[in-house]
C-alpha cells in the first residue's frame, strides 16, 4: 500500500514540474500528438495540431526554395509557453497548376518539430472554344485551344466519326490545341450536327464542343451500280439533290425503263424505280445520266442472263480445256460425260486423308465410316488401324458404298464391294480384292472388326487434313470433326496422262449431278490412261447397240473412234481395217469434235472445217469407218460456230445440226438426206436459254426410237460468269 502511494506522488510531482518553464529542466523537449504530415485538398482548409513542450515555443513557416507563392499557409498562434498546446494550420485554395509543400516548424529551446504540409495542384480541363456553328461544306480542320494538366479522353460518336476525326491530340499539363478534320459534306440537304466531349471520369472533368456543318451542292445516287440477275424485277435507286435535276438514258432500251418519279424533279430526296424485263439469252447494261446544276452522276444497271432454275451444273469451275458434256439416259438416270485434263506427278499418286506427321491422335471404338471422292481410278486402299491386344485371328470386313445424299441414305443402299481382310498389329493390308480397281466417283467405306481376340476394336485417328479428298468420317453414328482416320488411296500406277473421262449421274432429272462411277466409262478412262494419251474434243452417241466415242487422241487433230457394247464389254478402237483393243487409227482430221449419227444401217459423221460443215456418209456394216463419201454439207457466210452436234429427229424425219450463234441463240441446220443442210430457225428462246460463254450445245435422243424426248437435256460449256459445264431441260 505504501509503494502505491509513493508511485502516485512521483507521477503528480513529475507532471507539475513538466508544465513549468523551470531552470531545473535543463533539456528542451517537444512531444507530438498525431502524425507529422498534414495534407489539404485543392480547396484548402484548416486543421488543428496538438503538441507538448517543456519550454516556451515559437513557429516558423519554411517554404521550399524557388516557391512561387509563400503566403498560402498560416499558423495561429505563432508562439506559447511550456505544457500542452494547440495550433491551427490554415491553407488557402490552390489556384496554381503546381503541387504545394511547406514545413511548419515548432521551436522550443534547442528542440524542434517539423510538420510537413502538402497540397495537390489545381486540376484543369478547359476548352477555350465551345461551339463551331455553320461550318461550310468543304473539308477543313478546326482548332480547339485547350488548357489541361490532366489526362483526358476525346469522345466522338460512332455516327459522327464518318465525318469528323481527330488528326492531332496531346494530353500534357500545358496549354494545348486539339485538331479535328471535318470531311466534305455533299450527301445531304440539311445541316449535320454533333458534339465532341473531353472527359476525365475519375476527376469529374468534362468539356463539350458543339459542331454543325452546312451541306454543299449535293447530288447523290445510291447505289450507282446495280448488278442483278436475269429475272424480271424492279431496281430502286435513292436520289438526294440540292438542285433541280434531270435524268436521261445514254441509249434507249426497252428492257429497262424509269417508272413513277421523274425523269425530272426539284431539289429533295427521291426514290427512282426502274422496271427491268427478263434477260433471256445475254447479259446487258443500261446507263442513265443524272444532272443537277453543274453536277453529273451516272446510274448503271447490269443484268446477267437468266439461265434456267431447273437446270444445274454438271461441273462448276474453269472448264476452258474441258470438252462440252454429252448427256444421255441410262437405266432411268441421266449420265453426263465429258473429258478433262488431269496431270499427276509421282508424289501425288497417294492421297492421304490425314497428315501422318501430326501427333496426339485419339482411339475410337466401333465401325469406322469414311466419305471420300476419287478423281481417278484407285487400285489400292489402306487404313491405319491400331488395337492393343488384337491377335492373329483378328479380321476386318471392308465395304464400299456409292455415296448417296447423306450418311443414312448411303448406308441404306447395298455395298458395291465387300471384302474380309486379316489384321496384324503393325501391318496394313490392302482393303480391295486382288486386281480390283475403283472407278472415279464419290464413295463411303465401312470397316468393321470381326473374329477378334478382344471386344474393343480401335481405330487410330489423326489431325484433320486433305478435305478435298475426304469429306467426312464417322465412328458408329458419331461424326468425327476434330480428327480424321489415317486413310489413303493409291491411284492406278499408269496415271501420267492428261485426258480423263468424268462420269456424272443425275437421279432427279438433272436437278443435281454427282460423282457416281460407271464401270463402262471408267474402263474407257483407264484405257486412255494406259495409253498415256491426251484426249480432247470428246463426243459420244449411241446406235446399233453400242456407245461410240470420237476424240482427238493425241492433240494433233487426228480424230479416232472407239466403241463399247451398251450391254457391257471391253472398249475397242478402229485400227484402220477393223476394231481392236489397241486401235489408234485416225479416221477424221479436225480441230473440232466429230458428231456421229446411225440411221437405217448407214453412219454419218459431221464436223467443222473452217467455215464449212463437213458431212461424211458411210455404208452400213460393222467396218463402216473403212470407207466414206465426204462432202460440204453447209458453208457458213456469217461467223462459223466453234462446233456442231447432229441428231436425227424421227418426228420430222430430219437430221438437225445445232450450234451456238453469235447472239447466243441455239442455231439449227436441217437436212432430209443427212448430207446437205439448209439454215432453219433457231430453237425458240422461250424453250431454251444459253448462259454466257457457250461454245457448243448437245442434247440426247432416245436410243431406241431416235426421237428427241419432250424433256431432252441441252448441255454446254459456260465460259463467262460462273464457269463450268451446265445442263438443262426444255423450259
TrEMBL record:
Classification via InterPro entries: BACON, Ig-like_fold, Sialidase_sf
N-terminal signal peptide: 1-20
Domain of life: Bacteria
Entry keywords, A to Z: Signal
SUPFAM superfamilies in the cross-refs: Sialidases
Residue span, BACON domain: 69-113, 248-303
Designated name of the protein: BACON domain-containing protein
